[in-house]
Amino acid sequence: MSKAAPIPSRQQILDWLNDNPDQTAKRDIARAFGVKGQAKIELKRILREMEAEGLIEKRRRQFRDPSTLPPVTVLRMLREDSQGDQWAEPAEWTGEGPAPVVLYVRREGDPALAQGDRVLGRLTPVEDESYGYVARLIRKIGTASHRIVGIFRKTAEGGRIMPIDKGAESEWQVPAAVTEGAKDGELVEAEQTGPRGRMGLPRARVLEVLGDPSAPKAVSLIAIHQHGIPDDFPDEVVAEADAAEPAPLGDREDLRKLPFVTIDPADARDRDDAVLVERDDDPKNENGFLIWVAIADVAHYVTPGSALDREARKRGNSTYFPDRVVPMLPDRLSGDLCSLHENVDRAVLAVRMKIDEHGRKLSHRFTRGMIRSVGSLEYGQVQSARDGNPDEKTEAMVEEIIDPIYEAYEALKRARALRQPLELDLPERQIVIGDDGHVTSIQFKTRLDAHKLIEEFMVLANVAAAEELEKLRRPLLYRVHEEPSLEKIEALREVAQASGFTLAKGQVLQTAHLNNLLSQSEGSEFDELINISTLRSMTQAYYAPTNYGHFGLALRSYAHFTSPIRRYSDLIVHRALILGHGWGKDGLSQWDIDNLEETAQQISDTERRSMAAERDTTDRYLAAYLSDRVGSEFTGRISGVQKFGAFVKLDETGADGLIPIREIGREFFHFDREAQELVGSETGMTITIGQRVRVRLAEAVPITGGLMLELLEVEGQGMPSGNGKRRKGRRPGTRPPRKPARDAAKKKAIARKVKRTRKK
């Protein structure tokens, strides 16, 4: 009879688990040490003690060293680094110290994985590397987990996160082990780790503590994290930018004797375009002009496949907030080497365009050159000089530089009038931030001719770039804006008819038809309504390697060429021009060409992401600015109607607030989706887009950007009660209730009658 093997010591068990990570079940340990019969009970006791002390971890009847990962592990994917390597981390980690770093190795046929995706991976330990394991995909088990930014509230179980999104459904529950030390009231970024748990709330873990939500300039930080906008450059990207040197003249065309100037906002963070206009001395082009547009040669510094290139493509574009910018490129490039500062040699891609006196482009020529701007000017400064009030800097520039620019603009205006691009008139607001990070004022930007002429020059250059690449038969990314759908145009036509205007029907829609509608409404009480409704009928512009035209600009071919510092699309167009003209080895690569469709989708998505982040930030700043005016009354216009209430755009600030349905009278309101109306069941009162209203600010929540309003008057009429009687003492300052104005009611009745006739 053989003698039973002795029970192994704790150290022997740990050594075995480390040496045999794929044999960690209790039966594997017993077999390895020859433990049989009643001795297994003692072994089981030892394993339980080691588990309780944290020396080993039990997983599905198996034990392992908690400082190591099992051979098959659930991983959460991290983002690629500047070298193109993709990393991962264990979805759960309870060991001491930071979680092991895992390098993910993609094999042919494996799906592309995004940051946050969850996979089941097979791990192989590695030694003498900065990472601990190499992972290969077994299968993908989940897409990127949902992330939120919110306020952390400490609880006995750990904490809860109060989302700052206006549309968030619920709070999130955070176990104590994954709060990352967040304190009560702090702003945190978290990700979902599980479905709704015992408390009825989805589970989450804190990823990063962002600090005090009321701190100055925290508003844009919230948007950056909320929308996942990368705001830190990897070390490799910064090192590559810092190592860059000014581009030499080399084979470039020397344009340094030409008096280029840059014209930008007073607070411009980068200067990527310079202009110059010469009167054409060709007798065949009497009263014509030569317009030069020179654009920073970003392609010289951001070459295909480099760390800078991969990061720029991932970001897609710069994102602009009232208090900061999240740039596409590091400051060494965006604010220095690629910025066309005055009296400094700068590498450019330039186009010289010949136009006639009617603004028609007769020809163009592209070149890779070197310029030296003679002046960094501001829009207001240039306009004042043109209007006869030059300052010390512009006085010597008026006759030879500024006047020709305006003369060429007058010619381009004539061509624009014939082309008839969409002429929307929607004022742009500007949030002014003080040194303390708080809003000091809300202003509406003034549109000067100086702004418009630069826009016209840039449009002309963008058209020339698209046409040049089509002639060279080189791939490119077009800026596409497709015509609106028939359904949206029909909805716009109904709004126009209800307002007493007409929109042409029964022919191919052109921007000229929409401009005619906008012209009809100009100066009327429905001016803003028609402009907003027209804008909402438009499709969203995007990037594509296929040309579908640009409806809004009324152009057949259009590409983005003029802002490569802040848009990756323009960098692709620059590379295509370099390749087409043979200007160097830094042109469009084969990888760029093969992945053009994917790049178009990527940068279209990042553009929408930035727009959403910028819009959310504006809403929050406006809510903060108005938060000390709760109870005040404002005038505005109904800008949207939904079944849960009506949106109002306030005249004073342009802020959008919500009147909840429960606050619109003491009666039931029916939502007519087709007509975009709320109709009172007892009084017949109608709430619809475009109506003038007076409201009281009931609530302003800076952390979400939400404004809640109380409706006081519609088109000058006080609010009726649900039984048709006057409200007494409920809304101070309201007028006695009376029926809606007859002309407005008549227009709405006609509109509804037209709809019923169409349906029949």
UniProtKB/TrEMBL annotation:
The Swiss-Prot or TrEMBL record describes its family as follows: Belongs to the RNR ribonuclease family. RNase R subfamily.
User: Where does the protein principally reside?
Assistant: cytoplasm
**Signal peptide extent:** none
| Compartments in which it is found | Cytoplasm
User: Which residue windows does the record flag with biased composition (Basic residues)?
Assistant: 724-739, 747-760
Q: Which Pfam families match?
A: CSD2, RNB, S1
Describe its function. Answer: 3'-5' exoribonuclease that releases 5'-nucleoside monophosphates and is involved in maturation of structured RNAs.
Against SMART domains, the record matches this protein to: RNB (SM00955), S1 (SM00316)
Q: Could you say which enzyme class this protein belongs to?
A: hydrolase
Q: Which UniProt keywords apply?
A: Cytoplasm, Exonuclease, Hydrolase, Nuclease, RNA-binding
Name the chemical reaction catalysed here.
Exonucleolytic cleavage in the 3'- to 5'-direction to yield nucleoside 5'-phosphates
Report residue spans for region: Disordered: 717-760
Question: Which InterPro entries does the protein's record reference?
Answer: CSD2 (IPR040476), NA-bd_OB-fold (IPR012340), RNase_II/R (IPR001900), RNase_II/R_CS (IPR022966), RNase_II/RNase_R (IPR004476), RNase_R (IPR011805), RNR_Ribonuclease (IPR050180), S1_domain (IPR003029)
Q: What is its EC number?
A: 3.1.13.1
Q: Which organism is it from?
A: Thioclava marina
* Spans traversing the lipid bilayer: none
Which gene is annotated as encoding this protein in its UniProt record?
A: rnr
Identify the residues that the record assigns to the S1 motif domain, covering every copy. 631-712
Q: PANTHER family, from UniProt?
A: DIS3-LIKE EXONUCLEASE 2, RIBONUCLEASE
**Under which name does UniProt file this protein?**
Ribonuclease R
